[in-house]
Structures are given as structure tokens and as C-alpha cells.
């Protein structure tokens, strides 16, 4: 192994400067009818661990360990061609349908009732329901809301009861379509047309239940040609009717002309996410000012992850006679470096807790996911599982403190000079301090110092680091525990501060009591 240089970085933790509370919904995830996320993912009748409803218990156990909260469902691109009615009622009567988004066949053996039951078994996670505003509109959205939330006494609510759910599902958070700015989206619309439709649907849904929390579609990427203008046009028409505007972002290391990957820029993906959040925040503020509104709209970053988009695992089936059921799609195998980036993106979301009140790691199982399964076989944790689960465990319920970081810089092709160390501190309700930190440097380890708040005397410290000397090492079916967090024995306490050595390309969680 090549000799490493040592850099120095410092984080000052100050109780006087709070960004905002850690919202539980920031630890949401996403289940879409895509590839094997549902079928042979969370739902596989006949699997050795399956219960009487066909839910894999091994997956439920991992979902609980992951700490996911809100689950966005049923899409994603899938929802823009989905008829929700096809997924309710007796299973033998449900139709098999073409899914145009992923060129697959949807059997509809898993639908709203199954999702509600699965969520209950997985720990009571909140359902974040998306409505189809691609091929459908106001009437269908109102029917779904009536079916889901009205206790009884109407055609749709009584239908739900006949289908086995006496109590309403009481879904509070609803997505008004998905990525409607994207030309790939079934029913794609321009900002003006989508804004009018979303405003109409939002107004109608609030006539049934005025206290719903509604998410309007923002841009599906920071790089969309319509970014910014889309947000302002849509928000002009919907601002006082919605609670959130969505943001979506996926990152992967670009392939350079010499065939290598641009790992330096990839490790700094949080720089782009932070800029995205601030730009959307500016659009929200500008629209609020123009409308002279006293209403607040926040960001739901309801799709984010590492995704090797455009590469072999992400290629759809093709051919008019080829519509497979639950094909292996988007099954990226994540490396140690990918996990460091996921940890860095989580840090960025927390740093923006004043703006980002919800987020969804896309997706939960098999499809660009922290959890992988084999049909009739095991389930295991990908490398990206660990930064999510540790952050959720130590940050939930806390308050984010304004990050004050002194860090060396390094150069990237995409973002110029960026900080090699990125960190955030969370003050727990029990008085503890949790710090999450990445060392983005490919070459240098970092001596990282944490100055604790005045009067805070540390008695116990736990530091867990995710790092591998081979940054491309991964957890696979045949080597499921190759990359795991380990106890970082370099952590020490002295004079109101904590020090820890961060290896290059690493993510570390530090819990100080």
C-alpha cells in the first residue's frame, strides 16, 4: 500500500447555532414496481422466510435494522401509467398489465392493501402515496383518496372494506405525479400544463381532506434544461396548495477518456446536491415573495442515491413480444466508495435540515438498493446499507447544528476545488453529540478534531468507520460481509475535544456521550 500523507481538519460544535430539527422523514426510502424491488424483493410467496401474506421476513428484519421511515410508493416512473384499481380486490381477478416505464409485465399481485400490511409488519413506516398524473388526473386521484382515507359510507370506502380493510389507511403524504418534467415520463407535460393540473388535483384533494401534505413535482435533475424555471412556473400555480416540492438526484463516477472513472469528482457529489438544494430554496423564496404568501414550502428530496445510469444493469428489456415479469433491472452492486458517497449525501441532507423536511433513498430492495435478495435464497446488506442505518440510528430526534468546518481542499474536474472533509453534528435529545464525517481524499488520511460545546464533558465515545483499502470492494451474494463498518480505535477524548484519524475514502460516525 502506498504511503499516505496526513491532512488536518477541524469541526467546531456550537449549541448556539442550530440549523433545525432532524426530521424523521429524511430517512425515507422508496418501493417502486420496478425490476425485483417488489416481486422476489419484499414479496415472495413460497420463500423459506415468507409469512402467510408472502412477505419475506428476512427482508423485513433488514428494513427494521436500516431504520427507514417513510416509504414512497408505487413509483417513480411506474406510477405515470398505473391504474391503482388494478392492485386491489381478489388477487385472482387482478389484471396483468404492460408497464411502459420499465418494459415489463405487472401482475398486480401486490397493491395498496399489501403495501399497507407490509408497512405495519416492517415497523409502522409511513406510506407516502404517489398518484398518476401522467395518463390520469383529478377524478382518479379523488377516487383513490376516497378509497384510502374515508372511513365508510361511500362507494369507494365501502369497496375498501369489502376488500378486507375495515379501517381507512389514513395516508397523509401524497406525491402529485412523478418527474413530469422528464420527456421519458409517460404523459410528460410542460411546466405550465403540469402546474395547472397539479393545482387542480391539490385543490380537489383538499376538499376531501384539507390537512393532507402534498408534494408537487420539481425538477428530476439539477442538470435539466428547464431547471429553475420549472420550479418557479409550477410553484406560481400551486404554492399555497402544497407543502413540498420534490428534488431528484443520482450520482455515479463518470468514465474518463482513458477509461478510468472520475473518482475525485464522484466523491464530491455532495457539492452538487448542496447546490441543488440551495437553488430550489431560492426558487421557493422568490415565488413566496412574488405571491406575498405567508405559507411555507419545503423540499422533499424523494429520490437520491448512487446509480450507474446508462450502464448494463439499467438497460430495459426490448421488443413488442418481450415483457418479462420482475426482470433483474438496476441491480447495481455497490462498492466501498459508493457507500462513502451515500454517507456524504446523507451529511448534505442533514446540513440542509431547514429546507429538506423529507427524503427518500431510491430504492429499498434490489433496485439500486441497500438490501439485496436472491429468489428462494438469502438477503444481505450492500455497502450503502451501513451509513444509512448508523445515521438513522444516531441522528433521529436530534437537532442539526450549523457545520463550522476547517478543511483542506482538493481539485475535481466537475466542481473545481472542494473541501476534502465534509461533516455535520447532531445534538441528541439525550444530550449526546453525533458527528458524521467523510474523508473524500483518494490519497490522504485526515487527523480530524472535534471541538465540543462549552460545558460538554465527554465520558464515552464510539467511532465507526466504513473504509476498505480496495475502494471498489463490494458485498456480494458469495461474499456478503466483505465491507462493514469497524470500530475506529484512533478515537480519543481530551480537553473538551475529540480526535479521530480518518482513512482516505472513508465515512465515519462518531457518537459522544
TrEMBL record:
Q: Which family does it belong to?
A: Belongs to the glycosyl hydrolase 51 family.
Task: Look up keyword Protein biosynthesis and say if it applies.
Answer: no
Q: What keywords is this UniProt entry annotated with? A: Carbohydrate metabolism, Glycosidase, Hydrolase
Q: What is its EC number?
A: 3.2.1.55
Q: Which GO terms describe its molecular function?
A: alpha-L-arabinofuranosidase activity
The cross-references to SUPFAM superfamilies, in alphabetical order and at most eight, read: (Trans)glycosidases, Glycosyl hydrolase domain
Known PANTHER family for this protein?
ALPHA-L-ARABINOFURANOSIDASE C (PTHR43576:SF3), ALPHA-L-ARABINOFURANOSIDASE C-RELATED (PTHR43576)
Domain Alpha-L-arabinofuranosidase C-terminal as annotated: residue spans: 302-506
Q: Name one GO biological process term.
A: L-arabinose metabolic process
The molecule here is called: non-reducing end alpha-L-arabinofuranosidase
Subunit structure of this chain's protein: Homohexamer; trimer of dimers.
| Origin species | Bifidobacterium criceti
From the broadest rank down, the organism's phylogenetic lineage runs: Bacteria, Bacillati, Actinomycetota, Actinomycetes, Bifidobacteriales
Which residues are the signal sequence here? none
Asked if the record carries the keyword Hydrolase, the reply is yes
Amino acid at each position: 500500500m502506498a504511503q499516505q500523507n496526513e491532512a488536518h481538519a477541524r469541526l467546531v460544535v456550537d449549541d448556539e447555532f442550530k440549523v433545525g430539527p432532524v426530521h424523521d422523514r429524511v430517512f425515507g426510502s422508496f418501493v417502486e414496481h420496478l425490476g425485483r424491488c417488489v416481486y422476489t424483493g419484499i414479496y415472495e410467496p413460497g420463500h423459506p422466510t415468507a409469512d402467510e401474506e408472502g412477505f419475506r421476513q428476512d427482508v423485513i428484519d433488514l428494513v427494521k435494522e436500516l431504520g427507514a421511515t417513510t416509504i414512497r410508493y408505487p413509483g417513480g416512473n411506474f406510477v405515470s401509467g398505473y391504474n391503482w384499481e388494478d392492485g386491489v380486490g381478489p388477487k385472482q381477478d387482478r389484471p396483468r398489465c404492460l408497464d411502459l416505464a420499465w418494459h415489463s409485465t405487472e401482475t398486480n399481485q401486490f397493491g395498496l392493501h399489501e403495501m399497507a400490511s407490509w408497512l405495519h409488519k416492517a415497523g409502522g413506516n409511513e406510506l407516502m402515496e404517489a398518484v398518476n398524473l401522467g395518463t390520469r388526473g383529478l377524478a382518479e386521484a379523488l377516487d383513490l383518496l376516497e378509497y384510502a382515507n374515508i372511513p365508510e359510507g361511500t362507494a369507494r370506502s365501502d369497496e375498501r372494506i369489502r376488500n378486507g380493510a375495515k379501517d381507512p389507511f389514513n395516508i397523509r403524504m401524497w406525491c402529485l405525479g412523478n418527474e413530469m418534467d422528464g420527456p421519458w415520463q409517460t404523459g410528460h407535460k410542460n411546466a405550465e400544463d403540469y402546474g395547472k393540473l397539479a393545482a387542480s388535483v391539490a385543490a380537489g384533494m383538499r376538499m376531501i381532506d384539507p390537512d393532507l401534505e402534498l408534494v408537487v413535482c420539481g425538477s428530476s435533475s439539477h442538470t435539466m434544461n428547464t431547471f429553475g424555471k420549472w420550479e418557479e412556473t409550477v410553484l406560481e400555480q400551486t404554492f399555497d396548495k402544497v407543502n413540498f416540492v420534490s428534488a431528484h438526484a443520482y450520482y455515479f463516477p463518470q468514465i474518463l477518456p482513458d477509461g478510468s472513472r472520475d473518482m475525485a469528482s464522484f466523491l464530491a457529489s455532495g457539492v452538487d446536491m448542496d447546490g441543488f438544494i440551495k437553488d430550489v430554496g431560492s426558487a421557493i423564496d422568490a415565488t413566496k415573495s412574488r405571491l406575498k404568501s405567508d405559507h411555507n414550502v419545503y423540499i422533499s428530496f424523494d429520490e437520491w442515491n448512487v446509480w450507474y445510469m446508462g450502464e448494463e444493469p439499467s438497460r430495459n428489456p426490448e421488443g413488442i413480444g418481450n415483457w418479462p415479469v420482475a426482470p433483474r433491472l438496476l441491480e447495481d452492486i455497490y462498492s466501498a466508495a459508493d457507500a462513502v458517497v451515500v454517507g456524504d449525501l446523507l451529511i448534505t441532507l442533514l446540513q440542509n435540515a431547514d429546507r429538506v423536511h423529507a427524503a427518500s433513498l431510491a430504492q429499498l430492495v434490489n433496485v439500486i438498493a441497500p438490501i439485496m435478495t436472491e429468489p428462494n435464497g438469502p438477503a444481505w446488506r450492500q455497502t450503502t446499507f451501513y451509513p444509512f442505518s448508523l445515521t438513522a440510528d444516531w441522528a433521529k430526534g436530534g437537532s442539526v447544528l450549523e457545520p463550522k468546518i476547517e478543511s483542506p481542499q482538493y481539485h475535481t474536474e466537475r466542481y473545481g476545488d472542494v473541501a476534502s472533509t465534509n461533516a455535520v453534528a447532531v445534538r441528541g435529545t439525550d444530550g449526546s453529540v453525533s458527528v458524521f464525517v467523510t474523508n473524500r481524499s483518494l490519497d490522504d488520511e485526515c487527523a480530524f478534531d472535534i471541538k465540543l460545546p462549552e460545558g460538554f464533558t465527554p465520558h464515552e465515545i464510539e467511532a465507526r468507520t466504513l473504509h476498505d483499502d480496495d475502494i471498489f470492494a463490494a458485498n456480494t451474494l458469495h461474499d456478503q460481509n466483505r465491507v462493514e463498518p469497524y470500530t475506529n480505535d484512533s478515537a480519543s477524548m481530551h480537553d473538551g475535544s475529540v480526535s479521530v484519524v480518518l482513512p482516505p475514502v472513508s465515512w465515519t460516525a462518531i457518537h459522544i456521550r
